Amino acid sequence: MTLMIRFRRAKACAPLRAAILCAATAVTALMMPIAQAASYPDRPLTLINPYAAGGPADVVARSLGRALEKRLGQPVVVENKPGGGASIGTGFVARAKPDGYTLLLGTSAGHVVTPLMQKTTYDGVDGFAFCSVVAVQPIMLVVNPARGIRTVAELLARAQAEPGKLSYGSAGVGGATHLGAELFQQVAHVQLNHIPYAGASPAINDVVGGQIDLAMLNLSASLPFIRQGRLIALAYAADKRSALLPDVPTLAEAGVAGAQAATWYSLAAPAGTPPDVVQRLSNAVRAVNDDPDYRRVMQEQAIELMSLTPAEADAYVRRDRADMQRLLGSLGLLAK
Prior knowledge:
48% helix, 18% strand, alpha/beta, ten-stranded mixed beta sheet
């Protein structure tokens, strides 16, 4: 009888023990992301740059990576995965494990423009957790000195008198230098002749050489030629003047309000990355902006620093997508 009672008691306790074990397992599973976030990062991080080495994005990626290392206490390895209008590198990160160890130097092209213009394997907005928008690089409207144009007003007068005759170069269809110029034409009600190039360098060379009349280009690329007098800077496509060329007005100051254009850069992780990890990275970006060496490099490249919260960054990207969808739709460039 005693043995039977013990057996029955043991049998009756089995479901309770199983329930306790399941509950403990569930609590452990729930606590794991918290524990991971608390110890994050505990190994090197990889920052993907969706462009080739040597360009403006590479300068941002490597400078940001070095500065983040100081704040996070772990190496940040920059890898270049160029191609497909930034879609190759951007898609790679979208498919990565959402643990905060594979990050993206996101760009307006990879997140917004390319997914709108062609079918991609990822969603440029919902496929990511945005830690911050870290910087913007506005573009400068420049003209060949031999054209005798010294102000935006003179440019508009010439363009209105001879629609489609003045030619402008861009770094490629769908890039900021192309879409910025198209937006300028829409707002200013003028017609220019677009000549696309495979990058900013050949476009600059042809403006300087007189093969085309003008261009809207990143200031970092055109600044040496402006300082040499080989290009005339007409206006800056930003909300405020550049500290590098304080005498050059903004487009709004020159009478063309609403034509701001820039390349922006984000720090993004795959969707599903723990919120605490995303916030940790956002805080690190904010701290990085106080690094004097980082600020100096960015200023030399005419790059303006930002440090948006995750919620602000997400809203920023969504606004840009809505604006680009309208612009690309008006140009007939949306993916079918």
